Amino acid sequence: MATEIDVGGIKFRGGKLFLILTILSSFVGLLWGGFQYYQKFLDMEKAISEFQSPDLSSYDEQIAVLKSEVSMVLEEVSLVNDVAQSLKNDLRDDIKTMKADIRAIDKVVNDIEDRVKANEREISEDFKILEKEIDDKIKKSLSNPLAGIK
After folding, report:
1. Type and span of the H or E element at 5
2. Which residues are paired to 11 by β-bridges?
3. Cα 16 → chain centroid
4. What is the per-residue pLDDT for 148?
């Protein structure tokens, strides 16, 4: 009881019949898939032809406002930077001047200290000489028999 199909004088049976049915069903599936993709293509084409670009003018205005604000902020930052740079340079110059003044004052103070020390030594020596002279005069007057001091 083998099933046979006769098409145009050609007989098909068993495995060949199964193979033909598989090929036919694959071909029908391919045609159906192609039709679906073609329908999607037509739908997409229709959507593209009906597309209207949105009104972005409000965004353009907002972007222009933001650009002007950013520009103003950048100008202010640049101005602050220039002022800070100027202050830094002035401060650096002031510090250099102060260092030079401090060196000059240090030199004057050292000179004065040296002079004071020299004067102290001279005064100390003068005191020693004066003390010796006074001691000598006291001894001389005490050793004088006319002094009347016993």
Report:
1. strand 4-7
2. 6
3. 79
4. 61
Alpha-helix runs per DSSP H in the chain: 14-50, 57-143
**Token reading at 125:** 């020596």
Give the type of residue at 137: K
Judge whether 35 and 42 are in contact, CB under 8 Å: no
Whether residue 16 contacts residue 7, with contact meaning beta carbons closer than 8 Å, is answered with no
Structure tokens at 62: 């907002």
Rounded to whole angstroms, the Cα distance separating 11 from 13 reads 7
**144 in helix, strand or coil?**
coil
For residue 14, list its beta bridge partners: none
pLDDT in tens, 33-63: 999 999 999 999 998 888 888 887 888 889 9
Q: How far apart are CA 147 and CA 138, in angstroms?
A: 11
Please give the DSSP secondary-structure letter assigned to residue 7.
E
Does the pTM exceed 0.90?
A: no
Amino acid at 134: I
In angstroms, rounded to a whole number, what is the distance separating the alpha carbons of residues 89 and 74? 22
